């Protein structure tokens, strides 16, 4: 897939702990898979078969990163 053919979705994910932070999520479809990552947090990335599952998994991965104070 060439760069011109790749479609990226950028959505704003808000995660609330003790304060409100905004994170940029980059999502793209690659064959049968949805691939996504959080731009501001290195290592928080996932892949799933559906967009909805990908967003759910990214939220869980971000929550774990925050809990482990990787953010």
Please give the share of residues in helix: 10-25%
Strand order of the largest sheet: 1-2-3-4
| Terminal CA distance | 32 Å
Number of domains: 1
Structural class: alpha+beta
- Uncertain spans: 1-5, 14-20
Number of helices: 1
What is the residue-averaged pLDDT? Answer: 77
General shape: elongated
What Rg, in angstroms, do the CA atoms define?
A: 13 Å
Percentage beta strand? 35-45%
Counting DSSP E segments of at least 2 residues, the number of strands comes to: 4
What does the largest sheet look like? 4 strands, antiparallel
**Secondary-structure element series:** EEEEH
Structure explained in plain terms:
The protein has 71 residues and is an alpha+beta fold. The chain has one domain. It is built from 1 helix and 4 strands, in the order ββββα. The protein has a 4-stranded antiparallel β-sheet with strand order 1-2-3-4, covered by helices on one side. Strand 2 and strand 3 form a beta hairpin. The model is unreliable at 1-5 and 14-20 (pLDDT under 50).
Keywords:
about 70 residues, alpha+beta, four-stranded antiparallel beta sheet, disordered N terminus
Describe the protein's topology.
Layout: E1 8-16, E2 20-30, E3 33-38, E4 45-48, H1 51-67
Antiparallel strand pairs: 1-2, 2-3, 3-4
Q: In short, what is this structure?
A:
With 71 residues, the protein is an alpha+beta fold.
């Amino acid at each position: 897939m060439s760069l011109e053919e790749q479609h990226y979705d950028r959505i704003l994910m808000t995660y609330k702990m003790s304060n409100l932070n905004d994170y940029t999520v980059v999502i793209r479809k690659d064959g049968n898979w949805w691939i996504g990552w959080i731009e501001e947090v290195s290592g928080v990335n996932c892949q799933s078969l559906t967009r909805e599952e990908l967003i759910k998994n990214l939220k869980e991965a971000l929550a774990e990163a925050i809990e482990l104070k990787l953010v």
